[in-house]
């Protein structure tokens, strides 16, 4: 049996410019911490190698401290073989990066810069398909079909890219053949680029990123422990938890009779998990003004508990009755303002974003009026 860990898309050095405060630094540090967590898993699972299927770094010019500290961390685990593949974010076009890496890499780090077999162990070979540029314009795995390895040896393909095109023009020149494992006689094809773990077929897998960096996939950070029990035997896979942060999208669907605050309470994680959670709440449906205002107030109260918290009210329509507006004021300037905001919130000719802004402002006005009379 040969065991290794398949991971990809660490994106070390990612800036996270969309966030403020100390969160970008915390997220960057969590990505660096993945290296140690992967090594711990490798020792616990008796895996002799960690194979990174591209985008180890977020850019072709990572800061020197990001590069050096990553290599230093890998070198702290000398019993583990690390194999790094150039991806589309850190392709071979970044000649200075890979030149520096070649000089600085510790003995247990292998840079898969050439399309040629790499011996990992006796009768175990990695067949890498490094990205020569950000968009190579061809299927870089094609060479694997004729790649020579000893009879009976394990063949592990390693590549970075898509197995289907998402381009409008439908070009497939740089798409990895989904059946490459079959064509090339691979025991396993380790892919990177997609940030969520995906099985393409019985021998082809995306590991997903070990530390999530977006809401798109709504999956925990994980890597794959791969066990190969001999040539042509099907691989055995075990997901390994690796993420320090959880990114989650919560669907808050509200009907007239529902209390949205109670629903939100049922969706959010426990208090001890919130500091490591980035939560996006998508509210939809419709509710009365008082409950709308209570939801906004509860979200504002919750926000400091989380690494990041956003309540998106674009899909939540306001329902109202005369007594709702009378709770603000029966007449006068406040009532005029409230009526104006209500018209905007109900105006279907406006964008959903503008209607949501008007609804949120009306909810704040309602809260302010209630606080003044309480």
Explained architecture:
With 374 residues, this protein is an alpha/beta fold. It has helices at 23-44, 64-75, 95-104, 180-184, 260-267, 289-302, 322-328, 333-346, 352-373; strands spanning 2-7, 49-52, 81-84, 109-111, 118-121, 124-129, 154-160, 188-192, 198-201, 204-206, 222-228, 236-241, 246-254, 277-288, 308-319. The strands form three sheets. Strands 4-3-2-1-11-12 form a six-stranded mixed beta sheet, covered by helices on one side. The protein has a six-stranded mixed beta sheet with strand order 5-6-7-8-10-9, with no helix packed on it. Helix 6 packs across helix 9 and helix 8 (333-346) runs antiparallel to helix 9. It starts with a strand and ends with a helix. The model has no long low-confidence stretch (mean pLDDT 92).
Spatial order of strands in the largest sheet: 4-3-2-1-11-12
Compute the separation of the termini in Å: 71 Å
Helix tally equals: 9
Count of beta strands: 15
Which features would summarize this protein structure in a list?
single chain, 374 residues, alpha/beta, Purple Acid Phosphatase, chain A, domain 2, 6-stranded mixed beta sheet, 9 helices, 30% helix, elongated
Topology (SSEs and partners):
Elements: E1 2-7, H1 23-44, E2 49-52, H2 64-75, E3 81-84, H3 95-104, E4 109-111, E5 118-121, E6 124-129, E7 154-160, H4 180-184, E8 188-192, E9 198-201, E10 204-206, E11 222-228, E12 236-241, E13 246-254, H5 260-267, E14 277-288, H6 289-302, E15 308-319, H7 322-328, H8 333-346, H9 352-373
Helix pairs in contact: 1-2, 6-9, 8-9
């Amino acid at each position: 049996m040969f065991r290794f860990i398949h991971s990809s898309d660490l994106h070390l050095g990612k800036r996270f410019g969309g966030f403020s405060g100390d969160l970008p630094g915390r997220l960057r540090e969590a990505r660096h911490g993945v290296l140690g967590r992967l090594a711990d898993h490798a020792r616990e699972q008796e895996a002799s190698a960690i194979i990174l299927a591209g985008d180890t770094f977020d850019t072709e010019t990572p800061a020197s401290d990001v590069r050096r500290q990553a290599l230093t961390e890998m070198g702290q685990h000398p019993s583990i073989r690390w194999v790094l593949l150039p991806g589309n974010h850190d392709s071979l076009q970044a000649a200075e990066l890979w030149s520096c890496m070649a000089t600085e890499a510790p003995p247990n780090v292998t840079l898969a810069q050439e399309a040629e077999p790499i011996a990992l162990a006796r009768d175990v070979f990695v067949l890498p398909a490094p990205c020569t540029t950000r968009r190579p314009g061809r299927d870089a795995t094609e060479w694997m079909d004729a790649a020579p390895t000893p009879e009976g040896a394990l063949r592990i393909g390693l590549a970075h890219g898509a197995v289907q095109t998402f381009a409008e023009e439908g070009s497939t020149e740089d798409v990895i053949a989904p059946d490459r494992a079959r064509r090339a006689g691979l025991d396993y094809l380790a892919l990177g680029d997609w940030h969520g773990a995906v099985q393409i077929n019985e021998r082809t897998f995306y590991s997903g990123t070990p530390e999530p960096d977006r809401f798109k996939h709504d999956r925990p950070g994980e890597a794959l422990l791969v066990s190969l029990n001999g040539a042509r035997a099907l691989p055995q896979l075990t997901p390994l938890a690796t993420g320090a942060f959880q990114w989650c999208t919560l669907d808050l669907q509200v009907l007239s009779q529902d209390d949205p605050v109670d629903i939100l309470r049922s969706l959010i994680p426990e208090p001890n998990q919130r500091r490591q959670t980035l939560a996006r709440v998508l509210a939809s449906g419709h509710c009365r003004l008082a409950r709308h205002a209570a939801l906004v107030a509860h979200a504002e109260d919750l926000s400091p508990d989380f690494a990041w918290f956003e309540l998106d009210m674009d899909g939540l329509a306001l329902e109202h009755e005369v007594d709702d507006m009378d709770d603000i004021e029966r007449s006068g300037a406040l009532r005029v303002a409230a009526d104006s905001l209500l018209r905007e919130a109900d105006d279907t000719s406006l964008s959903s974003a503008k209607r949501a802004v008007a609804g949120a402002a009306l909810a704040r006005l309602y809260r302010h009026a209630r606080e003044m009379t309480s």
